[in-house]
Amino acid sequence: MIGGPVVLVGPSGAGKTTIARRIVERRPDRFFLSVSATTRRPRPGEVHGADYHFISPARFRAMIAAGELAEWAEVHGELYGTPVRSLERDDPAAPVPILDIDVQGARQVVRRLPHALAIFVVPPGPDVWIERLRGRGTESPGQLRRRFDTAVQELRAMSFFGKWLINNDLEESADQVLAMVEGTRHSTAEEGVSILVSRLELGARAEAARLAATARPGEDPTDESENAGARTR
């Protein structure tokens, strides 16, 4: 059993949050969800303190200055970060925090906490992945195109994290994470994952191009609004 936090990282729509929640549901005695802080507004159904700590930009900047964040980033005009207190364990036998964050944040956590276990979650295929992102219905075509562009860059960061899994099935993915925590399982073969990542990149680029081509006259395909997308999850 590892001593540091478990970090699930990957592009938006990979299923990181779902896997993290399933692991906590199955083993609440061993894991708990780390709750990030953000300056963006809550989406319908989101609860302060459960989904995010929704705070003001001024409070967020104060936390940065005080060193209270293990990682933070500005994404699509909003600030996101992980409070250090959410990763602390006074008792080594206490449950381990599990995070699902974007590539920017995961890199910071790994550098600051070398004992963290970072696992890159790869979507099962371009069709399923693109449909997941479309199905959210929370973003404009311009915001969605920007998310696809960002996802391509994030996919290329997979090798930085050393461990990865293909999220074909929720229960299997949860089993794989638990096995990696115990040190009884290694990542999926790199060659197979690299081929899949290439297919995902092609699919994301094609969808971004389609969104740009169907943009209405005068519409900015990289439009930002005050509710522009969540940190890539």
Q: Strand tally, please?
A: 9
Instruction: State the helicity in percent bands.
Output: 40-55%
* Low-confidence region ranges: 221-231
Which structural class matches the secondary elements?
alpha/beta
Overall description:
With 233 residues, this protein is α/β, with parallel strands linked by helices. It has a domain at 6-34 and 96-213: Rossmann fold. It is built from 8 helices and 9 strands. It has helices at 16-26, 57-65, 103-112, 126-135, 141-155, 158-161, 170-182, 190-213, and strands at 6-9, 31-33, 37-38, 53-54, 69-75, 78-83, 96-101, 117-122, 163-166. The protein is globular, with a radius of gyration of 18 Å.
Fill in the keyword field for this structure.
5-stranded parallel sheet, 17% strand, disordered C terminus, 233 residues, alpha/beta, Rossmann fold
Topology:
Blueprint: E1 6-9, H1 16-26, E2 31-33, E3 37-38, E4 53-54, H2 57-65, E5 69-75, E6 78-83, E7 96-101, H3 103-112, E8 117-122, H4 126-135, H5 141-155, H6 158-161, E9 163-166, H7 170-182, H8 190-213
Parallel strand pairs: 1-7, 1-8, 2-7, 3-4, 8-9
Antiparallel strand pairs: 3-6, 5-6
Describe the structure in brief:
The protein has 233 residues and is α/β, with parallel strands linked by helices.
